[in-house]
Design goal:
- This protein is mainly α.
- The protein has a domain of 147 residues.
- Helix 2 runs antiparallel to helix 4, helix 2 packs parallel to helix 6 and helix 5 packs across helix 6.
- The longest helix is centred in the C-terminal third of the chain and has 92 residues.
- The protein starts with a helix and ends with a helix.
- Pfam families: Myb_DNA-bind_5.
Length: 245
């Protein structure tokens, strides 16, 4: 659920406060803004600064995004500003719609306007394609030609692996829940069968008790018949042994 919440919030457009904070941060760290932090040390420094910027921006009013989303937003923002200026043909930043865009152009793009930029590797397709609108002007969906930093790809790959693991875990838990439900149902059926067996055993016990009582009654009757026969025999003997008068 946490992942879903973060993903949805990252699709909202940044607030003006967040955009201003990003530009101010990049003004203090121009090498990060221009993608000039290279090599092992540069990569580590870039990662550290992006983590720091992500914490700063996410604590401001506006959407909460993962670091990779802010990296892409900055690249797309520069690309949009560059495209707007170039489209006017005169390279005049005064044609831009907002002070934020003018500042981005003047600080990071003006000196690079006449250079031929090389195509670079596109970012992963699942990175959110949402952008901030300045003064009601929507930015174009473009990918900046600044280099994609290696640690960003590693972060994306790690998130993909984590998502795959979570999906497998949810599937396994679902299967386990189904198995437990079947086990509970089987236990319920078994309990019902044992209850019926107990009832049958009780009925059988009652039948045995009645049979035993019947045998006792028969035994008593047999004893009475025997006594009666003995009495009859004694009477007959007395009759035949008495002399006639």
């Amino acid at each position: 659920m946490l992942y879903i919440r973060v993903y949805l919030s990252s699709k909202s457009r940044p607030s003006m406060e967040q955009v201003t904070a990003i530009v101010d941060f990049m003004e203090k760290h121009p090498a990060l803004a221009l993608g000039q932090l290279r090599g092992m040390e540069g990569r580590d420094e870039s990662k550290r600064l992006w983590f720091k910027l992500t914490r700063i921006v996410n604590n401001l009013s506006g959407p909460t995004r993962p670091m990779k989303s802010w990296i892409k937003y900055w690249a797309d923002k520069k690309s949009t500003v560059r495209t707007k200026v170039i489209s006017y043909g005169d390279g005049n930043s005064n044609n831009l719609c907002s002070n934020v865009e003018k500042k981005i152009w003047d600080l990071f793009l003006a000196n690079d306007a006449g250079k031929t930029r090389k195509p670079v590797k596109q970012e992963s397709s699942y990175v959110e394609d949402t952008y901030f609108k300045d003064d009601g002007v929507e930015e174009d969906n473009q990918v900046d030609s600044d280099p994609v930093m290696p640690f960003e790809e590693q972060t994306m790959d790690m998130e993909q692996r984590q998502n795959a693991i979570m999906e497998r875990l949810v599937k396994a838990m679902s299967e386990q829940a189904g198995a437990l439900a079947q086990l509970a149902q089987a236990a319920h059926v078994s309990a019902q069968a044992m209850h019926r067996a107990a009832d049958a055993a009780q009925i059988q016990s009652q039948a045995i008790d009645r049979l035993a009582t019947t045998f006792e009654t028969i035994n008593a009757a047999t004893h009475d018949v025997r006594n009666a026969l003995v009495d009859i025999d004694s009477t007959m003997k007395r009759l035949y042994s008495t002399p006639g008068t």
